[in-house]
Amino acid sequence: RAEERQEELLAGVDPDDLADAQANVAKRLRELEEAREALDSLTLVAPFTGVISQTPASVGDNITAGTAIVVLNDLSTMRAVAQVDEVDIMKVREGMDVQLTFDAFPDAALLGVVGPIPLETNSQDQFSAAIYYEVPVECDYGELPLKPDMSVTLGFELKRADDVLRLPTMA
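and the corresponding structure tokens:
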């Protein structure tokens, strides 16, 4: 038996068997490339680095264009929206400093900056005739473990005076 095997090895590979094997390898490589392309077409790539906070779609759901399947939050910067009354909107300027304090972290504060001021009002209070503008404020998270939709109080610096005593308006 060993002698027969030695003769087969010394005789070399049958050219027809080699051609068949090479054709089979080429076919499998094409199939692999097609499978990779199919997988790539099914892979979702986020437009930014973030954290998935919701997955409204489930396995087996019929997904069509425009169907939300995940909610992705960009946690590198935070954006708060201040509702500024029409009486005060002219005092607010883009680039103005804003102090942000959070109900969840009352002893900590972050510094933010006012974004573009809207030209039109976005909302009207349903319980009064007050009109307000939704003004964006952006800031870095700093060291606080903030979460989306946390309550925040925004303090706009409308005037600055150095070397003065500051008293609360209500005591």
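(Above: one complete record from the training split.) Strands lie at 51-54, 71-73, 77-85, 97-102, 105-114, 123-124, 131-140, 152-156.
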